[in-house]
Design goal:
Layout: H1 3-31, H2 43-62, H3 67-84, H4 86-97, H5 105-121, H6 123-129, H7 141-160, H8 179-212, H9 216-249, H10 256-282, H11 289-325, H12 331-359, H13 361-377, H14 383-398, E1 402-409, E2 415-423
Antiparallel strand pairs: 1-2
Protein backbone atom coordinates (compact mmCIF):
# COMPACT_ATOMS: atom_id res chain seq x y z
CA UNK A 1 0.00 0.00 0.00
CA UNK A 2 1.35 3.40 -0.98
CA UNK A 3 1.89 6.16 1.52
CA UNK A 4 -0.81 8.34 -0.08
CA UNK A 5 -3.41 5.54 0.00
CA UNK A 6 -2.65 4.71 3.64
CA UNK A 7 -2.90 8.39 4.58
CA UNK A 8 -6.29 8.74 2.88
CA UNK A 9 -7.63 5.66 4.68
CA UNK A 10 -6.51 6.63 8.18
CA UNK A 11 -7.51 10.29 7.93
CA UNK A 12 -10.93 9.23 6.62
CA UNK A 13 -11.21 6.96 9.67
CA UNK A 14 -10.16 9.88 11.86
CA UNK A 15 -12.87 12.12 10.35
CA UNK A 16 -15.51 9.42 10.86
CA UNK A 17 -14.40 8.94 14.47
CA UNK A 18 -14.56 12.67 15.26
CA UNK A 19 -17.99 12.91 13.59
CA UNK A 20 -19.11 9.91 15.65
CA UNK A 21 -18.07 11.66 18.86
CA UNK A 22 -19.83 14.91 17.94
CA UNK A 23 -23.09 13.18 16.97
CA UNK A 24 -22.91 10.83 19.96
CA UNK A 25 -22.43 13.65 22.46
CA UNK A 26 -25.24 15.61 20.83
CA UNK A 27 -27.60 12.62 21.05
CA UNK A 28 -26.60 12.03 24.66
CA UNK A 29 -27.22 15.67 25.55
CA UNK A 30 -30.54 15.70 23.64
CA UNK A 31 -31.75 12.54 25.34
CA UNK A 32 -31.75 14.06 28.82
CA UNK A 33 -31.16 10.52 30.09
CA UNK A 34 -30.32 10.04 33.76
CA UNK A 35 -29.51 6.34 33.31
CA UNK A 36 -26.16 5.04 34.54
CA UNK A 37 -23.67 6.04 31.86
CA UNK A 38 -20.77 3.96 33.17
CA UNK A 39 -17.49 5.16 31.66
CA UNK A 40 -19.01 6.67 28.54
CA UNK A 41 -20.39 9.94 27.31
CA UNK A 42 -17.79 12.22 28.90
CA UNK A 43 -16.26 14.84 26.54
CA UNK A 44 -12.80 14.59 28.09
CA UNK A 45 -12.79 10.79 27.83
CA UNK A 46 -14.05 11.07 24.25
CA UNK A 47 -11.12 13.33 23.44
CA UNK A 48 -8.81 10.76 25.05
CA UNK A 49 -9.75 8.04 22.59
CA UNK A 50 -9.82 10.42 19.65
CA UNK A 51 -6.16 10.96 20.56
CA UNK A 52 -5.51 7.27 19.84
CA UNK A 53 -6.90 7.64 16.31
CA UNK A 54 -5.09 10.95 15.74
CA UNK A 55 -1.65 9.66 16.73
CA UNK A 56 -2.29 6.44 14.81
CA UNK A 57 -3.13 8.43 11.69
CA UNK A 58 0.03 10.52 12.07
CA UNK A 59 2.17 7.38 12.35
CA UNK A 60 0.53 5.62 9.39
CA UNK A 61 0.72 8.69 7.16
CA UNK A 62 4.50 8.78 7.72
CA UNK A 63 5.27 5.07 8.21
CA UNK A 64 2.53 3.03 6.47
CA UNK A 65 4.32 -0.23 7.27
CA UNK A 66 4.35 0.33 11.04
CA UNK A 67 1.62 -1.82 12.59
CA UNK A 68 1.53 0.36 15.72
CA UNK A 69 -0.20 3.16 13.80
CA UNK A 70 -2.88 0.86 12.39
CA UNK A 71 -3.41 -0.71 15.81
CA UNK A 72 -3.86 2.67 17.50
CA UNK A 73 -6.40 3.65 14.84
CA UNK A 74 -8.38 0.43 15.27
CA UNK A 75 -8.32 0.55 19.07
CA UNK A 76 -9.29 4.21 19.26
CA UNK A 77 -12.05 3.92 16.67
CA UNK A 78 -13.66 0.84 18.26
CA UNK A 79 -13.66 2.20 21.81
CA UNK A 80 -14.72 5.69 20.69
CA UNK A 81 -17.63 4.41 18.64
CA UNK A 82 -18.77 2.04 21.36
CA UNK A 83 -18.40 4.07 24.56
CA UNK A 84 -17.80 7.67 23.55
CA UNK A 85 -19.37 8.16 20.14
CA UNK A 86 -22.37 7.50 17.99
CA UNK A 87 -23.27 4.09 19.41
CA UNK A 88 -23.30 5.26 23.02
CA UNK A 89 -25.35 8.39 22.31
CA UNK A 90 -27.75 6.47 20.06
CA UNK A 91 -28.50 3.90 22.75
CA UNK A 92 -29.16 6.49 25.47
CA UNK A 93 -31.30 8.57 23.15
CA UNK A 94 -33.58 5.79 21.90
CA UNK A 95 -33.71 3.49 24.94
CA UNK A 96 -33.55 5.82 27.94
CA UNK A 97 -34.22 9.41 26.83
CA UNK A 98 -36.85 8.98 24.09
CA UNK A 99 -37.86 5.29 24.06
CA UNK A 100 -38.61 4.04 20.56
CA UNK A 101 -37.61 7.30 18.85
CA UNK A 102 -34.95 5.48 16.80
CA UNK A 103 -34.99 1.86 15.61
CA UNK A 104 -32.89 -1.11 16.76
CA UNK A 105 -31.71 0.45 20.02
CA UNK A 106 -31.06 -2.91 21.69
CA UNK A 107 -29.03 -4.17 18.75
CA UNK A 108 -26.91 -1.03 18.67
CA UNK A 109 -26.29 -1.49 22.42
CA UNK A 110 -25.30 -5.12 21.80
CA UNK A 111 -22.94 -4.10 18.99
CA UNK A 112 -21.23 -1.35 20.99
CA UNK A 113 -20.78 -3.77 23.89
CA UNK A 114 -18.59 -6.28 22.05
CA UNK A 115 -16.93 -3.83 19.65
CA UNK A 116 -15.53 -1.92 22.63
CA UNK A 117 -14.04 -5.14 24.01
CA UNK A 118 -12.12 -5.72 20.77
CA UNK A 119 -10.28 -2.44 21.20
CA UNK A 120 -9.48 -2.85 24.89
CA UNK A 121 -8.33 -6.47 24.52
CA UNK A 122 -5.83 -5.45 21.82
CA UNK A 123 -3.62 -3.49 24.24
CA UNK A 124 -1.08 -6.35 24.76
CA UNK A 125 -0.26 -6.13 21.05
CA UNK A 126 1.13 -2.63 21.68
CA UNK A 127 3.70 -4.12 24.03
CA UNK A 128 4.66 -6.83 21.55
CA UNK A 129 4.99 -4.56 18.51
CA UNK A 130 6.39 -1.33 19.98
CA UNK A 131 8.24 0.61 18.59
CA UNK A 132 8.90 -0.61 15.03
CA UNK A 133 5.70 -2.59 14.46
CA UNK A 134 7.54 -5.93 14.47
CA UNK A 135 8.00 -8.62 17.10
CA UNK A 136 11.27 -8.63 19.07
CA UNK A 137 12.07 -12.06 17.59
CA UNK A 138 10.23 -14.96 15.90
CA UNK A 139 9.86 -16.77 19.23
CA UNK A 140 7.27 -14.16 20.25
CA UNK A 141 5.00 -15.11 17.34
CA UNK A 142 2.96 -17.63 19.42
CA UNK A 143 2.27 -14.90 22.00
CA UNK A 144 1.11 -12.54 19.25
CA UNK A 145 -1.22 -15.15 17.74
CA UNK A 146 -2.52 -16.03 21.20
CA UNK A 147 -3.31 -12.35 21.75
CA UNK A 148 -5.24 -12.21 18.48
CA UNK A 149 -7.11 -15.37 19.51
CA UNK A 150 -7.88 -13.83 22.90
CA UNK A 151 -9.31 -10.72 21.21
CA UNK A 152 -11.60 -12.88 19.07
CA UNK A 153 -12.69 -15.02 22.02
CA UNK A 154 -13.38 -11.95 24.16
CA UNK A 155 -15.56 -10.43 21.48
CA UNK A 156 -17.54 -13.65 20.92
CA UNK A 157 -18.01 -14.35 24.63
CA UNK A 158 -19.18 -10.82 25.40
CA UNK A 159 -21.53 -10.94 22.41
CA UNK A 160 -23.16 -14.19 23.65
CA UNK A 161 -23.16 -13.61 27.43
CA UNK A 162 -26.73 -13.74 28.80
CA UNK A 163 -28.16 -11.08 31.05
CA UNK A 164 -27.50 -7.32 31.20
CA UNK A 165 -24.87 -5.85 28.91
CA UNK A 166 -21.67 -4.67 30.59
CA UNK A 167 -21.83 -1.17 29.10
CA UNK A 168 -25.61 -0.84 29.44
CA UNK A 169 -26.89 -2.58 32.61
CA UNK A 170 -30.45 -1.65 31.73
CA UNK A 171 -30.35 -3.62 28.47
CA UNK A 172 -30.65 -7.43 28.29
CA UNK A 173 -28.51 -9.17 25.66
CA UNK A 174 -30.92 -9.94 22.79
CA UNK A 175 -28.99 -13.10 21.79
CA UNK A 176 -27.66 -14.20 25.17
CA UNK A 177 -27.16 -17.95 25.41
CA UNK A 178 -29.66 -19.68 27.70
CA UNK A 179 -29.11 -22.19 30.51
CA UNK A 180 -26.00 -24.31 30.42
CA UNK A 181 -24.62 -22.54 27.37
CA UNK A 182 -24.81 -19.27 29.27
CA UNK A 183 -22.80 -20.79 32.14
CA UNK A 184 -20.20 -21.97 29.64
CA UNK A 185 -20.00 -18.44 28.23
CA UNK A 186 -19.54 -17.03 31.75
CA UNK A 187 -16.72 -19.52 32.40
CA UNK A 188 -15.04 -18.62 29.11
CA UNK A 189 -15.28 -14.95 30.04
CA UNK A 190 -13.45 -15.69 33.30
CA UNK A 191 -10.78 -17.64 31.40
CA UNK A 192 -10.48 -14.79 28.89
CA UNK A 193 -9.82 -12.29 31.70
CA UNK A 194 -7.09 -14.50 33.16
CA UNK A 195 -5.57 -14.97 29.72
CA UNK A 196 -5.63 -11.23 29.09
CA UNK A 197 -3.73 -10.64 32.34
CA UNK A 198 -1.13 -13.24 31.36
CA UNK A 199 -0.73 -11.63 27.94
CA UNK A 200 -0.17 -8.24 29.57
CA UNK A 201 2.68 -9.74 31.58
CA UNK A 202 4.07 -11.46 28.50
CA UNK A 203 3.90 -8.20 26.57
CA UNK A 204 5.81 -6.43 29.33
CA UNK A 205 8.40 -9.22 29.15
CA UNK A 206 8.77 -8.64 25.42
CA UNK A 207 9.55 -4.95 26.07
CA UNK A 208 12.26 -5.95 28.56
CA UNK A 209 13.71 -8.45 26.09
CA UNK A 210 13.68 -5.86 23.32
CA UNK A 211 15.39 -3.30 25.56
CA UNK A 212 18.23 -5.69 26.40
CA UNK A 213 19.13 -6.17 22.72
CA UNK A 214 18.17 -2.73 21.38
CA UNK A 215 20.37 -0.01 19.99
CA UNK A 216 20.66 3.46 21.45
CA UNK A 217 17.69 5.05 19.64
CA UNK A 218 15.37 2.11 20.28
CA UNK A 219 16.30 2.15 23.96
CA UNK A 220 15.27 5.79 24.16
CA UNK A 221 11.97 4.93 22.47
CA UNK A 222 11.32 2.18 25.01
CA UNK A 223 12.13 4.60 27.85
CA UNK A 224 9.32 6.89 26.68
CA UNK A 225 6.93 3.94 26.60
CA UNK A 226 8.04 2.66 30.01
CA UNK A 227 7.72 6.14 31.51
CA UNK A 228 4.12 6.45 30.30
CA UNK A 229 3.30 2.93 31.53
CA UNK A 230 4.58 3.86 34.99
CA UNK A 231 2.39 6.98 35.00
CA UNK A 232 -0.64 4.92 34.00
CA UNK A 233 0.06 2.39 36.75
CA UNK A 234 0.35 5.19 39.33
CA UNK A 235 -2.88 6.83 38.16
CA UNK A 236 -4.66 3.45 38.16
CA UNK A 237 -3.61 2.71 41.75
CA UNK A 238 -4.72 6.19 42.86
CA UNK A 239 -8.10 5.74 41.14
CA UNK A 240 -8.72 2.31 42.68
CA UNK A 241 -7.74 3.63 46.12
CA UNK A 242 -10.03 6.67 45.89
CA UNK A 243 -13.01 4.64 44.65
CA UNK A 244 -12.69 1.33 46.51
CA UNK A 245 -9.82 0.76 48.92
CA UNK A 246 -9.91 4.13 50.69
CA UNK A 247 -13.66 4.18 51.46
CA UNK A 248 -13.48 0.54 52.58
CA UNK A 249 -10.74 1.39 55.10
CA UNK A 250 -12.31 4.63 56.30
CA UNK A 251 -15.70 6.06 55.14
CA UNK A 252 -14.32 9.58 55.63
CA UNK A 253 -11.96 8.93 52.71
CA UNK A 254 -14.93 8.66 50.31
CA UNK A 255 -14.47 12.19 49.02
CA UNK A 256 -16.19 12.89 45.65
CA UNK A 257 -13.72 15.68 44.89
CA UNK A 258 -10.74 13.34 45.33
CA UNK A 259 -12.46 10.67 43.21
CA UNK A 260 -13.08 13.14 40.39
CA UNK A 261 -9.48 14.31 40.59
CA UNK A 262 -8.07 10.77 40.35
CA UNK A 263 -10.45 10.04 37.47
CA UNK A 264 -9.06 13.12 35.72
CA UNK A 265 -5.49 11.91 36.31
CA UNK A 266 -6.37 8.47 34.93
CA UNK A 267 -7.93 10.02 31.82
CA UNK A 268 -4.82 12.13 31.23
CA UNK A 269 -2.59 9.10 31.75
CA UNK A 270 -4.56 7.08 29.18
CA UNK A 271 -4.43 9.99 26.73
CA UNK A 272 -0.67 10.16 27.25
CA UNK A 273 -0.18 6.59 26.01
CA UNK A 274 -0.67 7.31 22.28
CA UNK A 275 1.09 10.66 22.65
CA UNK A 276 4.27 9.09 24.05
CA UNK A 277 4.08 6.34 21.44
CA UNK A 278 3.85 8.98 18.72
CA UNK A 279 6.80 10.91 20.14
CA UNK A 280 8.90 7.76 20.40
CA UNK A 281 8.17 6.68 16.82
CA UNK A 282 8.09 10.02 14.98
CA UNK A 283 10.60 12.13 16.94
CA UNK A 284 14.30 11.67 16.30
CA UNK A 285 15.75 13.63 19.24
CA UNK A 286 14.60 11.41 22.08
CA UNK A 287 17.28 11.94 24.66
CA UNK A 288 15.23 14.41 26.72
CA UNK A 289 13.41 11.44 28.25
CA UNK A 290 16.22 10.97 30.78
CA UNK A 291 15.74 14.54 31.98
CA UNK A 292 11.95 14.09 32.11
CA UNK A 293 12.26 10.90 34.16
CA UNK A 294 14.78 12.53 36.47
CA UNK A 295 12.60 15.57 37.10
CA UNK A 296 9.49 13.45 37.54
CA UNK A 297 11.20 11.37 40.20
CA UNK A 298 12.52 14.47 41.96
CA UNK A 299 9.29 16.44 42.04
CA UNK A 300 7.09 13.42 42.80
CA UNK A 301 9.23 12.58 45.82
CA UNK A 302 9.36 16.26 46.82
CA UNK A 303 5.58 16.59 46.59
CA UNK A 304 5.04 13.45 48.67
CA UNK A 305 7.45 14.60 51.39
CA UNK A 306 6.06 18.14 51.53
CA UNK A 307 2.47 16.88 51.64
CA UNK A 308 3.35 14.54 54.50
CA UNK A 309 5.14 17.31 56.40
CA UNK A 310 2.30 19.77 55.81
CA UNK A 311 -0.60 17.56 56.84
CA UNK A 312 1.40 16.02 59.67
CA UNK A 313 2.37 19.48 60.92
CA UNK A 314 -1.21 20.72 60.78
CA UNK A 315 -2.49 17.71 62.73
CA UNK A 316 0.26 17.85 65.37
CA UNK A 317 0.01 21.63 65.87
CA UNK A 318 -3.77 21.46 66.12
CA UNK A 319 -3.49 18.76 68.78
CA UNK A 320 -0.88 20.84 70.65
CA UNK A 321 -2.98 24.00 70.52
CA UNK A 322 -6.05 22.08 71.64
CA UNK A 323 -4.12 20.72 74.61
CA UNK A 324 -2.64 24.11 75.60
CA UNK A 325 -5.36 26.60 74.69
CA UNK A 326 -8.38 24.33 74.58
CA UNK A 327 -9.24 25.24 70.98
CA UNK A 328 -7.90 25.00 67.45
CA UNK A 329 -6.43 27.91 65.51
CA UNK A 330 -5.36 28.93 62.04
CA UNK A 331 -1.88 29.27 63.50
CA UNK A 332 -1.26 25.57 62.73
CA UNK A 333 -1.93 26.11 59.03
CA UNK A 334 0.18 29.27 58.91
CA UNK A 335 3.06 27.59 60.73
CA UNK A 336 2.99 24.52 58.51
CA UNK A 337 2.92 26.70 55.40
CA UNK A 338 5.99 28.63 56.57
CA UNK A 339 7.82 25.37 57.31
CA UNK A 340 6.99 24.10 53.82
CA UNK A 341 8.24 27.33 52.23
CA UNK A 342 11.54 27.00 54.10
CA UNK A 343 12.00 23.32 53.24
CA UNK A 344 11.29 23.40 49.49
CA UNK A 345 14.75 24.23 48.15
CA UNK A 346 16.86 22.22 50.68
CA UNK A 347 14.63 19.19 50.25
CA UNK A 348 14.71 19.48 46.46
CA UNK A 349 18.52 19.54 46.42
CA UNK A 350 18.75 16.63 48.84
CA UNK A 351 16.20 14.50 46.96
CA UNK A 352 17.77 15.30 43.59
CA UNK A 353 21.19 14.29 44.89
CA UNK A 354 19.82 11.05 46.33
CA UNK A 355 18.00 10.16 43.09
CA UNK A 356 21.05 10.99 40.97
CA UNK A 357 23.25 8.78 43.13
CA UNK A 358 20.75 5.91 43.02
CA UNK A 359 19.33 6.01 39.49
CA UNK A 360 21.63 8.30 37.47
CA UNK A 361 25.00 7.37 38.92
CA UNK A 362 26.92 7.92 35.71
CA UNK A 363 25.40 11.37 35.22
CA UNK A 364 26.05 12.18 38.89
CA UNK A 365 29.71 11.16 38.67
CA UNK A 366 30.11 13.10 35.41
CA UNK A 367 28.69 16.22 37.03
CA UNK A 368 31.16 15.91 39.91
CA UNK A 369 34.09 15.45 37.52
CA UNK A 370 33.09 18.47 35.42
CA UNK A 371 32.64 20.61 38.53
CA UNK A 372 36.13 19.65 39.75
CA UNK A 373 37.62 20.36 36.32
CA UNK A 374 35.96 23.77 36.24
CA UNK A 375 37.44 24.59 39.64
CA UNK A 376 40.96 23.54 38.54
CA UNK A 377 40.68 25.37 35.24
CA UNK A 378 40.82 28.75 36.97
CA UNK A 379 44.25 28.01 38.49
CA UNK A 380 45.91 25.91 35.77
CA UNK A 381 48.47 27.77 33.63
CA UNK A 382 50.41 24.90 32.06
CA UNK A 383 48.94 24.04 28.66
CA UNK A 384 50.31 20.48 28.63
CA UNK A 385 48.79 19.72 32.02
CA UNK A 386 45.51 21.33 30.99
CA UNK A 387 45.37 19.26 27.78
CA UNK A 388 46.06 16.04 29.64
CA UNK A 389 43.43 16.87 32.26
CA UNK A 390 40.90 17.73 29.54
CA UNK A 391 41.34 14.31 27.94
CA UNK A 392 40.99 12.64 31.33
CA UNK A 393 37.71 14.47 31.95
CA UNK A 394 36.39 13.40 28.55
CA UNK A 395 37.28 9.78 29.25
CA UNK A 396 35.66 9.87 32.69
CA UNK A 397 32.42 11.58 31.62
CA UNK A 398 31.83 10.29 28.07
CA UNK A 399 33.81 7.03 28.24
CA UNK A 400 34.76 7.04 24.52
CA UNK A 401 36.84 4.32 22.91
CA UNK A 402 39.28 6.99 21.69
CA UNK A 403 39.84 10.70 22.37
CA UNK A 404 42.43 13.04 20.87
CA UNK A 405 43.32 16.75 21.02
CA UNK A 406 45.00 18.66 18.17
CA UNK A 407 47.10 21.80 18.75
CA UNK A 408 48.85 23.92 16.15
CA UNK A 409 51.63 26.49 16.42
CA UNK A 410 50.82 30.13 15.76
CA UNK A 411 53.26 32.45 13.94
CA UNK A 412 54.31 34.07 17.21
CA UNK A 413 55.44 30.70 18.58
CA UNK A 414 52.43 30.19 20.82
CA UNK A 415 50.14 27.20 20.44
CA UNK A 416 46.38 27.34 20.04
CA UNK A 417 43.64 24.70 20.14
CA UNK A 418 42.93 23.21 16.75
CA UNK A 419 40.41 20.47 17.39
CA UNK A 420 39.03 17.86 19.72
CA UNK A 421 37.57 14.48 18.77
CA UNK A 422 36.07 11.59 20.71
CA UNK A 423 34.82 8.29 19.35
CA UNK A 424 32.39 6.06 21.20
Amino acid sequence: MSRQTAARIVWSLWAITVLSVVIGLWLLWSSGSTADRGNGGDPLTSLTFVTFVTIGALIVSRQPGNAIGWLLCAMGASVTWGMQGLGFGYVHYTLFGHPGALPAGEWVAWTTNWVTVLGLASVPLLFLLFPNGRLPSPRWAPVAWLTVLEVVISGIVVALMPGPLDNFPGVINPIGLPGLLGEVAAFLKFVSILLLGSLFLSGAGSVVARFRHAGMVERQQIKWFAFETALMATAFVATVFSHSVGPALDPDLANPLISRFTDFLWTLAVAGLPVTIGIAILHHRLYGIDLIIRRTLVYSALTAVLATVYFGGVVLLQQLLRAVAGQTSDLAIVGSTLVIAALVQPLRRHIQGAIDRRFFRRRYDAAKVLAAFGANLRDEVDLASLSARLLEVIEETMQPTHASLWLRARPDGMREERGLAAES
